[in-house]
Specification:
By secondary structure, the protein is mainly beta. The protein folds into four domains: 47 residues; 220 residues, Pectate Lyase C-like, CATH 2.160.20; 231 residues, 3 Solenoid (Pectate Lyase C-like), CATH 2.160.20.110; 60 residues. The chain is built from eleven helices and 55 strands. The strands form five sheets. It has a 28-stranded parallel beta sheet that branches. It is elongated and about 90 Å long. The N terminus is likely disordered.
Length: 723
């Protein structure tokens, strides 16, 4: 009692009262009161005393991560789901041999409760991780991992055995939904499961795994791999496995089944017992102990070392005997804004996709490039691009990629951030089979694409399939697709498959075929489309088929908006077919048109009406006043603005075109530079003060205020280029 009183800081008077009350009672009553008071005071003690720290320190932020110093700290991570979005750092190597069967708390239990934080191994290892118990799935040091980072971590002598019935089983992670695993290794791993079983990871839905290796054994029934059991999408780069691998179906030395991107990754065909893999390259023991096999791993930085002829590559931070693996850097420049990498040849362009460390750099295309040298999957797609690629108005021709079920297919697989500008593609053929996110330029874009086009495309895929970009969450400006075909099961579009971003000043003239949700410009739109059009192609399918967009829906505060657009493409469909939009779900429209001469059997929107979606005859669609009366900004008028977005030669042959489509020097009708334009230019010769007269009606081509010899040079160059 006295000790509790001192701990709680009770006053002597309070303690005295308690003792006095106890002394007035008989022994039995006194004992009961004493026990009751002890219980109350113990409860108060736990409330008042500071709780013992779960970890070795830190607050869980990036600047002050939780510190993991021993096995208890490590096990505590899995017991605290509220911490699974926090940052952690190992301070020592951790030995988990004290945990048997299913005693260790797996971190991230399933897709509803994944680990989404950052776990930095800090160049330390976890030893003797064991999990031997029946478990349905999501088993590994991390059960499920989503949109986080695991880095610089070793796992030594781990053993997972879920009785041959578990799914999503891997020593490090059972199921990777997205995120990054980098610079990690597993040695002497034992993994036994049923479905989607891998030495490192059981299943990867998306994400990036770079600079990792596994040794040990992997056993399962279906989708079994030395490194990864099943890889749906994402990127695996600079990884290897020497595991022995045993399985019945979809079993591979490196990966059991694959529809993602695998770069510079290998498995040992001798130790694995597997002559095949869904992806990667098989090597002999001798080859895997040669530095030359892994030279591509040393191009950007010295991550790996090797004791040649004796051992396999090891991560440099392991400090094993050996020499750094150093490659020869193949590109001219420094990769920054002052000195971007210069691309002159198809070999140099193909190098970019080989090295993930290049994907945040800046590039400049210095010449037209022909990619006809690459067939099948030989071209290295540039995925997770966060840099800048300036095409400098050069052309990439004959890009071909043929894979039955690979996701994120295009010259760029996924443009995450950065920019792609001024790039021209011609004669593009992509066959992704059942793959998702397919386009000539990019499978998916969350960044900025400007002044790019694709001509004569043949694009085939499953979902999110388009002539330029499969899915867009970024900004696409002044881009077009001219000619060709797009075919997809769902969300197929002439320019973009699904738009959740912004499309401005764009058009498409290719034909689109899709079973469900197909459109001449976008298959679906939950973003904004402004000053854009489709013309000349055919859009066909079964349900939700539209001249501009198959489906237009309220996708956010500013989503589902179509402004100053038109569609003049022929349509074929079964249900919910519209001249402008097939199916609208709270979509918003402003001054947009469709040609009801071409499509007399359909309405503007397949499931509803809107006064701002206007059907006009072909004759009216080729008359400027139809659009200027609706507020469209044309060259030669100022009442609707001075940006001069649109232009129309009223020859009853052409529809409105974007002013950006016209070559400098094409001043007057008909389209194209000819003697009429020369006469118009001559009429303005030597005029000055052009800023006050719309650049002298466009003839001040260099925009310096007068029409002179420099403008004549530009005019002649563009005239000759069009002949």
């Amino acid at each position: 009692m006295r000790r509790l009183s001192q701990i709680l800081g009770m006053s002597g008077a309070f303690y005295y009262v308690i003792r006095r009350q106890s002394n007035l009672l008989n022994n039995e009553q006194s004992n009961r009161l004493t026990i009751l008071l002890l219980a109350v005071l113990l409860a108060i003690c736990f409330l008042v005393l500071p709780a013992q720290a779960k970890y070795g320190g830190g607050t869980g932020t990036a600047e002050d991560p939780y510190l993991i110093c021993d096995a208890n700290h490590m096990n505590a991570v899995g017991a605290e789901p509220n911490d699974w979005d926090k940052c952690f750092k190992l301070i020592e190597d951790i030995d988990l041999s004290g945990y048997e069967a299913d005693e260790f708390n797996i971190i991230g239990t399933d897709e509803d409760y994944p680990f989404v934080g950052v776990f930095d191994g800090n160049n330390h290892a976890v030893l003797n991780f064991t999990y031997n118990a029946n478990r349905i799935g999501y088993t590994g040091l991390f059960g499920c991992f989503d949109d986080g980072v695991i880095r610089n971590l070793g796992l030594i002598q781990s053993e997972i055995n879920v009785g041959g019935t578990g799914n999503y089983i891997g020593s490090l992670v059972g199921n990777v939904r997205s995120g990054t695993i980098i610079n990690c290794y597993l040695e002497d791993a034992i993994v036994i499961g049923d479905f989607m079983v891998g030495g490192l990871v059981g299943y990867i839905h998306s994400g990036t795994i770079t600079n990792c290796y596994v040794t040990g054994s992997v056993t399962g029934n279906n989708h079994v791999g030395g490194l990864v059991g099943s890889h749906y999408s994402g990127t695996i780069a600079n990884c290897y496995s020497t595991c022995s691998v045993t399985g019945d179906e979809n079993t591979g030395g490196l990966i059991g089944s694959n529809s993602g991107h695998v770069i510079n990754s290998y498995w040992n065909i001798e130790t694995s017992g597997q002559p095949n893999s869904a992806a990667g390259e098989g090597k002999t023991i001798d080859q895997m102990r040669m530095a030359d096999t892994f030279l591509n791993w040393g191009v950007c930085e010295e991550v790996w070392t090797i004791q040649e002829g004796v051992d396999y590559p090891r991560l440099a931070w392991q400090q094993k005997p050996g020499d750094p693996i150093v490659g020869t850097f193949p590109l001219q420049g420094n990769g920054d804004s002052n000195s971007p990498y210069l691309i002159h040849t198809h070999e140099e362009l193909n190098i970019i996709g080989l090295f993930p460390c290049l994907w945040d750099m800046q590039f400049k295309l210095m010449a037209d490039i022909d990619l006809s040298h690459y067939t099948g999957t030989e071209f290295n797609i540039i995925t997770n691009f966060t840099g800048v690629f300036d095409g400098k108005d050069h052309t990439i021709a004959n890009f071909t990629y043929d894979s039955n079920h690979t996701n994120y297919i295009g010259l760029f697989g996924y443009v995450e951030s950065g920019r792609i500008n001024n790039l021209r593609l011609i004669d593009v053929e992509v066959n992704a089979g059942t793959g998702y996110y397919v386009g000539a330029l990019a499978g998916s874009n969350s960044s900025t694409i400007k002044n790019c086009y694709a001509k004569n495309v043949s694009i085939l895929g499953n979902y999110f399939v388009a002539g330029l970009v499969g899915a867009n969450e970024g900004t696409i400006t002044n881009c077009f697709v001219n000619g060709g075909t797009v075919s997809g099961s769902n969300l197929a579009g002439g320019l973009v498959g699904l738009n959740a971003g912004q499309i401005t000043n764009c058009y498409a003239t290719d034909s689109v075929a899709g079973d469900f949700t197909a459109g001449g410009l976008t298959g679906g739109n939950g973003g904004t489309i402004a000053n854009s059009y489709t013309q000349g192609g055919n859009v066909s399918g079964n349900y939700w088929i539209g001249g501009l967009s198959g489906y237009n829906f309220l996708g956010g505060e500013s989503g589902g908006k179509i402004t100053n657009c038109y569609a003049a493409s022929s349509l074929e469909g079964v249900s919910y077919v519209g001249g402008l939009v097939g199916y609208s779900n709270f979509g918003v429209y402003s001054s947009s048109f469709w040609d009801n001469t071409i499509n007399p059997l359909f309405t503007g929107i397949g499931n509803t009406t809107d006064p701002n979606v206007i059907g006009e005859s072909t004759t009216n669609m080729q008359t400027k006043s139809t659009f200027t009366n609706a507020g469209w900004d044309f060259i030669g008028e100022t009442s609707n603005g001075t940006e001069d977005i649109w232009r129309l030669c009223e020859d009853f042959v052409n529809y409105p075109k974007l002013a950006s489509e016209f070559t400098l020097g094409d001043f007057v009708c008909p389209d194209g530079i000819d003697f009429f334009d020369y006469s118009f230019f001559a009429w303005h010769w030597q005029k000055d003060n052009c800023g006050a007269s719309y650049n002298c009606n466009g003839t001040d081509l260099d925009r310096i205020g007068n029409v002179g010899i420099e403008d004549l040079g530009i005019f002649i160059d563009n005239w000759l280029a069009g002949l």
